[in-house]
Amino acid sequence: MGFRAAVAGASGYAGGEILRILAGHPEIEIATVTAGSNAGALLGAHQPHLRSLAGRTLAETTPDTLSGHDVVFLALPHGQSGPLAAQLGDDTLVVDCGADHRLADAAAWERFYGGEHAGTWPYGLPELPGHREALRSARRIAVPGCYPTAVSLALVPAFAAGLAEPDVVVVAASGTSGAGRAAKPNLIGSEVMGSVSAYGVGGVHRHTPEMVQNLSAAAGGPVTVSFTPTLAPMSRGILATCTAKARPGVTAAALRDAYETAYADEPFADLLPEGQWPATAMTLGANTALLQVALDEAAGRVVVVAAIDNLTKGTGGGAVQSANLALGLPEELGLTTIGVSP
Ligand SMILES: NC(=O)C1=CN([C@@H]2O[C@H](COP(=O)(O)OP(=O)(O)OC[C@H]3O[C@@H](n4cnc5c(N)ncnc54)[C@H](OP(=O)(O)O)[C@@H]3O)[C@@H](O)[C@H]2O)C=CC1
Ligand SMILES: CC(=O)N[C@@H](CCC(=O)OP(=O)(O)O)C(=O)O
């Protein structure tokens, strides 16, 4: 084993997914697991599926317990990563699954999250133009939000190829694990089962500025995004239906060609064969974003559907993919494109 890792927030969903992936990683050893209120408990009590790690004790999450590692994965509530990272030297790679360092626009941060902006770290989505190279020398990484991962992979190729106008509409369904482990009134079993519900409607969801940031960078100018998230009765997965106004003269063939070119060499972004549409069940547990494109000629819109596992490509898998790059390891190490079905 080449690198020693600590995982903070190991009793939560994102921390659990990072541990699931690291447990099969040939070059990263899980040295330390930490938690908040559950510090002192056995990991097995909170992550019973991680059998080989069941006997590990959850330590407190402090700079002391996290220091001395090659890589620290933070899967903690927003606001925790800045103060912790400040006490970990640059010899430690810090990979933050929280939102604190994803946005470059401090005003957008204050509007959607409130409080002072903690600063911007290299953004952990290697598939975006220029990002892979930046990640190779990073010592701090901001893992993208789960919805922005799906939406950016869905629409960046259309903007980068100059095929879309800056007018985007996204409706995306997420499984309940996206909301974390803590109980919330709208996530009680009987409220979720047998129903799909919208939330964060009307441009207020905090992932909107992150989508705007990524799509505007690809478009080379400001893009507006109308984003409506919905909660679906499933534990994992995001299905994002993304549309953008098509530029005049765009053809279906040119659109498909842009996506084939963009993702030809990407290990974790797959354009499906024509006629096959992404479904969350096709990529559960895999680090792959599945995509399909169409041109709605009557409406004059580019339509892209993306499916990811919110906990894998949308968090834990994306975190390990970027960490691999920053540690000088092969990007795909420890990650799978093989899903779990049914
Ligand atoms: N779930 C998802 O799909 C995604 C999550 N993320 C991000 O990952 C992070 C974790 O999310 P998620 O795993 O879903 O949340 P969970 O609620 O499932 O887990 C939160 C974790 O943080 C720990 N924690 C809470 N408060 C403190 C504290 N004050 N000090 C130390 N540890 C604390 C908890 O420990 P304990 O149990 O001991 O209290 C637990 O291990 C968040 O920033 C989230 O935004 C990002 C993308 C997608
Ligand atoms: C279904 C659900 O509630 N999903 C979460 C987003 C997922 C997430 O964890 O995003 P952050 O990393 O930015 O917190 C939400 O809509 O708030």
Automatic annotation (TrEMBL):
Species for this entry: Actinomadura parmotrematis
SMART domains per the UniProt record, alphabetical: Semialdhyde_dh (SM00859)
Gene3D superfamilies: Dihydrodipicolinate Reductase, domain 2 (3.30.360.10), NAD(P)-binding Rossmann-like Domain (3.40.50.720)
InterPro entries listed in its UniProt record: AGPR, AGPR_AS, AGPR_dimerisation_dom, AGPR_type-1, NAD(P)-bd_dom_sf, Semialdehyde_DH_NAD-bd
Pathway(s) it belongs to: Amino-acid biosynthesis; L-arginine biosynthesis; N(2)-acetyl-L-ornithine from L-glutamate: step 3/4
Reaction catalysis annotation: N-acetyl-L-glutamate 5-semialdehyde + phosphate + NADP(+) = N-acetyl-L-glutamyl 5-phosphate + NADPH + H(+)
Catalytic site positions: C146
Record's keyword annotation contains S-adenosyl-L-methionine: no
HAMAP family cross-referenced by the UniProt entry: ArgC_type1 (MF_00150)
UniProt EC number: 1.2.1.38
PANTHER family: N-ACETYL-GAMMA-GLUTAMYL-PHOSPHATE REDUCTASE, CHLOROPLASTIC-RELATED, N-ACETYL-GAMMA-GLUTAMYL-PHOSPHATE REDUCTASE, CHLOROPLASTIC-RELATED-RELATED
Keywords for the protein's UniProt record, in alphabetical order: Amino-acid biosynthesis, Arginine biosynthesis, Cytoplasm, NADP, Oxidoreductase
Family: Belongs to the NAGSA dehydrogenase family. Type 1 subfamily.
Subcellular location per the Swiss-Prot or TrEMBL entry: Cytoplasm
Enzyme class, spelled out: oxidoreductase
NCBIfam families: argC
Coiled coil: none
UniProt domain Semialdehyde dehydrogenase NAD-binding: residue ranges: 4-136
Pfam families per UniProt: Semialdhyde_dh (PF01118), Semialdhyde_dhC_1 (PF22698)
Function text: Catalyzes the NADPH-dependent reduction of N-acetyl-5-glutamyl phosphate to yield N-acetyl-L-glutamate 5-semialdehyde.
Name of the protein: N-acetyl-gamma-glutamyl-phosphate reductase
Upper lineage: Bacteria, Bacillati, Actinomycetota, Actinomycetes, Streptosporangiales
